[in-house]
Design brief:
The protein is about 10% helix and about 55% strand. The protein has one helix and 15 strands. An eight-stranded antiparallel barrel has the order 3-6-7-8-9-11-12-15. Strands 1-2 form a two-stranded antiparallel ribbon. The chain has a two-stranded antiparallel sheet with strand order 4-5. β13 and β14 form a beta hairpin.
Length: about 220
């Protein structure tokens, strides 16, 4: 009987040893010889790759053109067909050229010079109110598409000039300094459209007579 129990015990021990050996093997290689698996970090804890930022050109030139309206009536011309046209101190067409510098992602500064004129022309005469503004504008970029600007505007060589049958209306005005504010929408880094408001006054040279030159304007700009 003891011999029978001994035989059964040896068989059980042999089976246990065989199972332990199989558990220690994986694909024919002892587990102790297999490389340890590296712990995986949660995705939220893994280093995040920063999105690439487009390089912004620091300094570039610009040209612009716009239409303006507002201000006092300076002169009115009468035509032979009975019609008339009024020259305004806030009108009418403006051209600008300048340079802009991007200080950082949110701020930039622009300096420009321009030509601003309102005129009335007929076959036998012409009258126009022209001036040459110099502007310095600081911009705050709220997004890649929108920016707000404010600045100063110094206007020089201000003159009302006439010729032909309406000759004799020539008038000179003192240089003047005003303020401006504007908002610009950028269709691309090279093209934008802006709406602005300018506050300024013109004084006839040698007098205290003033004209209100306040006006609004719509401009298109190209940056290169």
């Amino acid at each position: 009987m003891k011999t029978t129990f001994l035989s059964i015990a040896l068989v059980i021990a042999s089976i246990g040893a065989a199972q332990a050996q199989n558990a220690d093997m994986q694909n024919g290689v002892p587990l102790s010889a297999q490389p340890a698996q590296q712990a995986q970090l949660p995705q939220s804890a893994q280093p995040q790759q920063q999105p690439a930022r487009l390089a912004v050109k620091k300094t570039h030139f610009m040209i612009g053109m716009g239409i303006t309206g507002g201000g006092d009536d300076i002169a009115t011309t009468e035509f032979t067909d009975g019609s008339s046209q009024t020259i305004h101190s806030g009108g009418l067409v403006a051209f600008t050229v300048g340079v802009e510098h991007r200080i950082n992602e949110q701020f930039s500064v622009q300096g420009n010079v321009g030509f601003h004129v309102d005129n009335s022309t007929a076959k036998n005469g012409d009258i126009h109110f022209r001036r040459y503004p110099i502007e310095v504008i600081g911009y705050y970029h709220v997004s890649p598409k929108w920016r707000f600007g404010t600045g100063i505007r110094h206007v020089t060589n201000v003159r009302l000039k006439s010729s032909g049958v309406i000759d004799g209306y020539d008038t000179e005005f003192d240089n003047t300094t005003g303020a401006l504010g504007e908002v610009e929408y950028m269709f691309s880094p090279s093209a934008g459209v802006k709406v602005r408001y300018v506050r300024e006054k013109y004084t006839v040279s040698g007098t205290n007579y003033k004209f209100d030159g306040n006006h609004v304007g719509l401009f298109g700009n190209y940056y290169f």
